[in-house]
Write a structure and sequence with these properties.
Elements lengths: L4 E6 L7 H15 L3 E5 L15 H4 L11 H6 L3 E7 L7 H8 L2 H10 L7 H6 L1 E7 L6 H18 L2 E8 L12 H14 L2
Parallel strand pairs: 1-2, 1-3, 3-4, 4-5
Helix pairs in contact: 1-8
Bound molecules: flavin mononucleotide.
Length: 196
């Protein structure tokens, strides 16, 4: 993985909707500073939910064989992470929650096996994350806060510093974000600052 590669996790199952639009604008900002990116779309991975078998507590690996298998190291080794997601019933869409839950295997490495230290200052200095959350409603913290909390829990387990967020509200139809110059500019500027 290149030192300046951003891994962007696109949480919406609706492709080219508001979340994708703002995420791609953010990535334009990072590209202007010389970074490249790779995309992960949980809804396209065909992954199964964690079944709570707890076998990962033995060795930090998930026994389910599917599209997640190569994802763990891709995410953990990425210096920069973007998580972009819509709010669905106050949380992330099911496919993104399934993706996050499967990182229980990494939680086991940190909390039980002590083979991975997500809190080490050395790691945190080199691993940064940014969140973009889209929603249809008016800006109302009670509506988007659960999603932010879930994203932060994921980042704590995987060892990423939370560098910032954009909460983009009043976005409903898939083309709505394209009409919001303010948001597009904010996303692009935030991308540039993220990798500076
Ligand atoms: C199943 C579902 C549940 C949703 N729940 C909420 C919600 O609780 N609060 C909200 O503000 N918007 C909610 N929305 C609207 C989306 O968050 C909004 O349309 C967002 O812009 C979709 O992003 P996308 O275009 O990237 O898919 C929901 C949409 C769907 C399809």
């Amino acid at each position: 993985m290149e030192a300046r590669t951003i891994t962007a996790i696109l949480g919406s199952p609706r492709r080219r909707g508001n979340t994708d639009t703002l995420a791609m604008e953010f990535l334009k900002g990072t590209a202007e500073r010389g970074s490249d990116h790779r995309l992960i779309v949980p809804a396209d991975l065909g992954i199964s939910p964690c079944d709570g078998n707890s076998l990962c507590l033995k060795d930090g690996n998930c026994i389910i064989r599917d599209g997640m298998n190569e994802i763990y190291e891709q995410v953990l080794n990425s210096p920069y992470l973007l998580i972009a997601t819509p709010v669905y019933f106050m949380g992330p869409p099911g496919s993104l929650k399934v993706f996050i839950d499967r990182f229980q295997a990494v939680w086991a490495r940190g909390a039980i096996l002590k083979t991975f230290d997500p809190d080490s200052a050395q790691r945190r200095a080199k691993h940064k994350a940014f969140a973009i959350v889209t929603a249809a409603a008016e800006e109302e913290p009670a509506m988007y806060r659960p999603t932010i909390s879930i994203i932060k829990a994921f980042l704590n387990v995987t060892g990423f510093d939370y560098a910032g967020e954009i909460i983009a509200t009043r976005l409903d139809e898939p083309g709505d974000a394209l009409k919001r110059e303010d948001l597009l500019r904010r996303a692009r500027e935030a991308g540039g600052q993220f990798v500076s």
